[in-house]
What does this fold into?
Amino acid sequence: MKDLNFDIIVVGSGVGGTTFTDYLTRKNPNLKVAILESGSYQTKEDFNQREIDMTALYYNRGAVLSKNLQIGVAAGNTLGGSSAVYTGVSFRPPNSVLNNWQKEFGLEFLTEKFVNRSLDEIEREISVHELPKSWDNDNNIFFQKGAKKLGIPVKRLKINTKDCLQQGFCNLGCTTGAKQGALEVQIPKILKKGVQIFCNTNVISIEENKVNVVVTDNPRNTNPNNLESGTYQLTAKKIVLAAGVLNTPAILLRSAKKLGLKNKNIGRYLTLHPAFNINGIHHKTIKNYRGFPKTVYSDHFSDTDNFYLETSFYFPGVTAKNIPGYGKMHQEIMKNYDKMMSILILVHDKAEFNNKITIDKKGNTVIDYSLSNNSKKALVKALQVATKIFFEAGCEQIMVPASDKLPLTPEDKKNIENLILEKYLNLYKTPLSSAHPQGGARMGKSAANSVCDNYGKVYGTKSIYVSDASLFPTSVKVNPYETIMLLSKWIAENIMK
Ligand SMILES: Cc1cc2nc3c(=O)[nH]c(=O)nc-3n(C[C@H](O)[C@H](O)[C@H](O)COP(=O)(O)OP(=O)(O)OC[C@H]3O[C@@H](n4cnc5c(N)ncnc54)[C@H](O)[C@@H]3O)c2cc1C
It folds into this structure.
């Protein structure tokens, strides 16, 4: 029987958990640290770029639907968490968001000096850089062409990759390890430092200094476990929850009774950065599945209309899900997969008390989220703008989820504002998606509106901390990876003080 007593136990091997562990062990190399991960042990050698096989890297094979069935949230359930399947788009948190977190939530540590120094280091270590223009595939080129004709400024994205072969399959796991996620950067480093990682190890509940887990057999074609299947109680001086937004709040809720937690904010203020991926059929072959999926974006409407546009690419199954309609008509549209242009719309949703992660009677995560009127407005405006870009870029048919007509064709060009309207937005027919859930264990100076203090410690506990995207007090409004690393670094550097 292994010794299951540790100085620190980290729950979850995503970027939050592994960045925390990496910084913790830099300063405290002698600590005995374990990471518990409910997903299986798979690395680049195990990925095969096949959509059906690789959906096993995700919760629920790709998306966990909200209770009202209006939005599907994608998150990784594998070693490395979502960083195994993310795209690598790297944004610094906007100053306006950081100022708000400082002023409204008392996150005083987010000084310009701390943020800039930390992110300079983080970006160096995960190889963040702009991709050269020569890497733009047709989808990225046509997006720029359409936006330029409309006078919409476009910026280049920063990506964290090394020796990328532009295979385009980032969201199915990178087979060459070019994407510098936790599997390539943090995990190899912390393993060398003696950190133990236990996969297929599901944390059911926690108590002060105790973690209750169930270990299950490793699935076929994955690497073997280092613990026999069964139930265990592990102990640690400190426990750090980094199980992601879908699960960190759920673990706290399942454990609330034993921990004596009564904080009504647990699970609350969930934001999802709701997204529509929309597609247009171009008159020429695009082959968006070749090249890096996204190199450019526009934040032109961010302050006025609350949305970003990014270029994107999705696999046939996901694309079919994103295209409204059914049956023969849908099948005919999908035959044009080779000509499809794609744009991703990301809406900045507000952190609202009623949007939350809860648990059902069995203790499983429930996403209780409704799109606000403001978000609906942003979505409709974004769909109108994206449709105009598609037309200007040379698309002949556009499949819009909030349109009176399907597909829209060039004769509709002058009538976009009347054809794409909120009244046609039927989220039961074409659900939104989310890959950037945030909040649920928000950080702040007071337990009155937060779950964790400025050091990530859960209010009302002695030994429980959080280090993942659940800490965000509000939506960060951009792709969240770098911000998660920033907060995790802060928590790691202070937890032993
Ligand atoms: C398809 C996709 C593309 C994305 N692209 C980008 C991008 O380009 N740029 C960007 O900034 N962001 C992107 N994101 C978002 C980004 O990847 C996530 O925000 C980030 O990785 C979340 O990190 P985390 O550590 O908070 O949580 P997670 O990565 O979700 O890690 C949580 C881990 O905890 C494990 N776990 C959960 N519950 C338990 C339990 N009970 N017991 C044990 N283990 C548990 C999970 O299996 C998981 O491994 C993308 C996400 C997806 C899904």
Remarks:
- The longest strand covers residues 230-241.
